[in-house]
Amino acid sequence: MLTLTPGARVLTDRSTGWGTLITADGRVVTLNPSAAIALSVVADGGTAADAEDALVRACPEVPIERIRVDLDALLASLQKKEW
């Protein structure tokens, strides 16, 4: 299971859906709306499956296979960077 480094936070602009990841060491990363959804779920203790479910609900027009590929890539990138 992926967890964010203690001290990292995800903030989301409710009007646009865009988000910001603030890492424990102060780096700031802009998140598109789907990444903001996925990382908000993970930041709240959810699993990759929970993030996938949230994305399916938020983006019903996107094929599940596309969601899985994109989510896997996002989570792999985050694990490499240890955010």
Largest sheet: 3 strands, antiparallel
Q: What structural class results from the helix and strand content?
A: alpha+beta
Please mark out the parts with pLDDT under 50 across 5 or more consecutive residues, or reply none. none
Average pLDDT level: 90
Order of helices and strands: EEEHHH
Large-scale geometry = globular
Describe this structure in words.
The protein is an alpha+beta fold and 83 residues long. Helices cover 48% and strands 14% of the residues. It has three helices and three strands. The chain has helices at 33-43, 48-58, 64-81, and strands spanning 9-12, 19-22, 28-31. It has a three-stranded antiparallel β-sheet, covered by helices on one side. The longest helix is centred in the C-terminal third of the chain and has 18 residues, at 64-81.
Structure characteristics:
three-stranded antiparallel sheet; alpha+beta; 3 helices; 83 residues; single chain
